[in-house]
């Protein structure tokens, strides 16, 4: 991407990049990206904080189930979220009277729906382990609940809040499927603009310039967020505090959590209801049509065949992400003997986290322009899409495995080695017993992410081997009631598959997953 942007004809030419960045449309796209991501981040934090408190500090019946339900939107395919909000806010939808379909408000609502779980889980995990005694002491001295929260609790939670907000902002700024589905080309972000420049205008230099700019901005934001989170966390080495019963001052937080749960359920329920509506009333016609190619040959292959392709791709992407993530985890958590070695491991850890903030579209575009010529020409390879999806899932795998590996006492490995165990035997007897649950959880998240990945796959999937998210986007782009009904049905199938995987992973109760 750097070479294509700055050396388009083999000679250094930064003028092309500057010309792209000076375009008025690029300015509008960049501004919309920043303010929509900022608004969605603010709303996610405001809505997620009460739920984080209620679900992690209060003994509410069924709170584990509610946690899992709020986590499902985060792993739903972005194109499914977009379709669900179109069905909810469209003219014939339950909230169609608000006239929000195709507006920035719809985009921001979709982004909040998708990302509020990050705040709930990350801040809730920190809140769960805060020592309650400083707050109780402040209350005993006459502080009101709001004063206790503002002067005691919030400062202690700042690292977790800043970390969650930075991740949410990155996810919102690099959102693709939601913006493309709800905003089209009228409300474009940097993400969708790269896609438009590549697939429609064939302006690869401009797309490369925006991709490089996005990569630089994301790197700076990640470094800034890391510095802001570097404040000592008072809950870092403290056991989880037992949840207490609900008191009168807690009622607003519990009520806000209930409202948030309803807000999360509404788009999904509307999507399911829409998939069951046919021209003759209620029925399963839309699901039966998934074995066809739709009206007027909208698809080259049926949705059922695309589902098989998605499952095969997800299996390949999962084992790739697990294998590479395990290697990265072992490398960055092994004991460093020198300061230089410690710095190298830290840089490697940050490097392999870049796909968390770098857009999947940027990754897909990079693959498109890199792996298209000998000696590495993967354009027609069935492994191209799984490799890209494995990179997208890699940060989640690494962030799940690394804390567990770092928490294993290295003296146990040394003791095993002194008794004659080989490094592989030590890995199996010391590391594996502590690691198997996080590995299963990481594989579940990687599988779910691969099933719903749309950004990179939109660039790389062949027309004869599309995945389900690609097929859904093609269906909503072709007119016809049957095509739209098939898109709704396919979205429900895909959402159900990812939800089942996430709920199964949630039952493992792996603490590191909660912090993403």
From TrEMBL:
<comment type="similarity">
    <text>Belongs to the binding-protein-dependent transport system permease family.</text>
</comment>
<protein>
    <submittedName>
        <fullName>Iron ABC transporter permease</fullName>
    </submittedName>
</protein>
<feature type="transmembrane region" description="Helical">
    <location>
        <begin position="205"/>
        <end position="230"/>
    </location>
</feature>
<feature type="transmembrane region" description="Helical">
    <location>
        <begin position="105"/>
        <end position="124"/>
    </location>
</feature>
<keyword id="KW-0472">Membrane</keyword>
<keyword id="KW-0812">Transmembrane</keyword>
<dbReference type="GO" id="GO:0055085">
    <property type="term" value="P:transmembrane transport"/>
</dbReference>
<feature type="transmembrane region" description="Helical">
    <location>
        <begin position="65"/>
        <end position="85"/>
    </location>
</feature>
<keyword id="KW-1133">Transmembrane helix</keyword>
<keyword id="KW-0997">Cell inner membrane</keyword>
<feature type="transmembrane region" description="Helical">
    <location>
        <begin position="482"/>
        <end position="505"/>
    </location>
</feature>
<keyword id="KW-0813">Transport</keyword>
<feature type="transmembrane region" description="Helical">
    <location>
        <begin position="160"/>
        <end position="185"/>
    </location>
</feature>
<feature type="transmembrane region" description="Helical">
    <location>
        <begin position="346"/>
        <end position="371"/>
    </location>
</feature>
<feature type="transmembrane region" description="Helical">
    <location>
        <begin position="251"/>
        <end position="276"/>
    </location>
</feature>
<feature type="domain" description="ABC transmembrane type-1">
    <location>
        <begin position="30"/>
        <end position="225"/>
    </location>
</feature>
<feature type="transmembrane region" description="Helical">
    <location>
        <begin position="383"/>
        <end position="406"/>
    </location>
</feature>
<dbReference type="InterPro" id="IPR000515">
    <property type="entry name" value="MetI-like"/>
</dbReference>
<dbReference type="Pfam" id="PF00528">
    <property type="entry name" value="BPD_transp_1"/>
</dbReference>
<feature type="domain" description="ABC transmembrane type-1">
    <location>
        <begin position="307"/>
        <end position="505"/>
    </location>
</feature>
<feature type="transmembrane region" description="Helical">
    <location>
        <begin position="317"/>
        <end position="334"/>
    </location>
</feature>
<feature type="transmembrane region" description="Helical">
    <location>
        <begin position="29"/>
        <end position="53"/>
    </location>
</feature>
<dbReference type="GO" id="GO:0005886">
    <property type="term" value="C:plasma membrane"/>
</dbReference>
<keyword id="KW-1003">Cell membrane</keyword>
<dbReference type="InterPro" id="IPR035906">
    <property type="entry name" value="MetI-like_sf"/>
</dbReference>
<feature type="transmembrane region" description="Helical">
    <location>
        <begin position="439"/>
        <end position="462"/>
    </location>
</feature>
């Amino acid at each position: 991407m750097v070479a294509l942007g700055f050396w388009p004809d083999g000679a250094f030419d930064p003028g092309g990049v500057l010309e792209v960045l000076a375009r008025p449309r690029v300015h509008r796209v960049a501004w919309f990206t920043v303010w929509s991501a900022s608004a969605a981040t603010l709303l996610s934090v405001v809505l997620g904080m009460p739920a984080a408190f209620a679900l992690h500090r209060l003994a509410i019946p069924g709170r584990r189930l509610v946690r899992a339900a709020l986590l499902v939107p985060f792993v739903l395919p972005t194109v499914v979220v977009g379709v669900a909000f179109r069905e909810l806010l469209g003219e014939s939808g339950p909230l169609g009277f608000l006239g929000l379909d195709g507006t920035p408000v719809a985009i921001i609502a979709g982004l909040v729906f998708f990302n509020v779980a990050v705040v709930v889980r990350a801040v809730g995990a920190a809140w769960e382990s805060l020592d309650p005694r400083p707050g109780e002491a402040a209350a005993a001295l006459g502080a009101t609940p709001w004063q206790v929260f503002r002067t005691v609790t919030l400062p202690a939670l700042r690292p977790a809040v800043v970390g969650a907000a930075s991740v949410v902002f990155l996810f919102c700024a690099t959102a693709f499927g939601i913006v493309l589905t709800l905003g089209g080309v009228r409300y474009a972000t940097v993400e969708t603009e790269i896609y438009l420049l590549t697939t429609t205008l064939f302006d690869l230099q401009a797309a490369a310039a925006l991709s490089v700019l996005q990569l630089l901005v994301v790197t700076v934001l990640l470094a800034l967020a890391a510095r802001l989170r570097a404040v000592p966390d008072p809950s870092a080495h403290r056991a989880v505090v037992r949840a207490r019963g609900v008191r009168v001052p807690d009622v607003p937080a519990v009520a806000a959590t209930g409202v948030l749960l309803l807000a999360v359920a509404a788009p999904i329920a509307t999507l399911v209801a829409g998939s069951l509506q046919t021209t003759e009333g209620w029925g399963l016609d839309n699901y039966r049509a998934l074995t066809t190619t739709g009206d007027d040959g909208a698809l080259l292959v049926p949705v059922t065949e695309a589902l098989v392709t998605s499952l095969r791709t997800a299996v390949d992407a999962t084992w790739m992400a697990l294998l590479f993530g395990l290697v990265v985890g072992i490398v960055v958590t092994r004991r460093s003997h020198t300061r230089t070695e410690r710095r190298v491991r830290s840089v490697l850890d940050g490097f392999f986290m870049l796909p968390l903030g770098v857009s999947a579209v940027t990754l897909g575009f990079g693959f498109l322009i890199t792996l298209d010529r000998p000696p590495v020409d993967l354009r027609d390879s069935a492994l191209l899409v799984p490799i890209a999806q494995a990179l997208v899932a890699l940060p989640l795998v690494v962030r799940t495995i690394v804390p567990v590996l770092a928490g294993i006492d290295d003296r146990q490995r040394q003791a095993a080695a002194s008794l004659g165990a080989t490094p592989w035997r030590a890995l199996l007897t010391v590391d594996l017993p502590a690691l198997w649950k996080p590995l299963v959880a990481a594989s579940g998240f990687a599988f779910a992410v691969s099933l719903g990945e749309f950004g990179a796959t939109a660039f790389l999937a062949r027309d004869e081997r599309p995945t389900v998210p690609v097929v859904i986007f093609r269906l909503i782009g072709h007119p016809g009631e049957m095509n739209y009904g098939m898109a709704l049905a396919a979205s429900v199938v895909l959402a159900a598959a990812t939800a089942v995987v996430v709920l199964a992973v949630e039952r493992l109760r792996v603490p590191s997953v909660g912090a993403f």
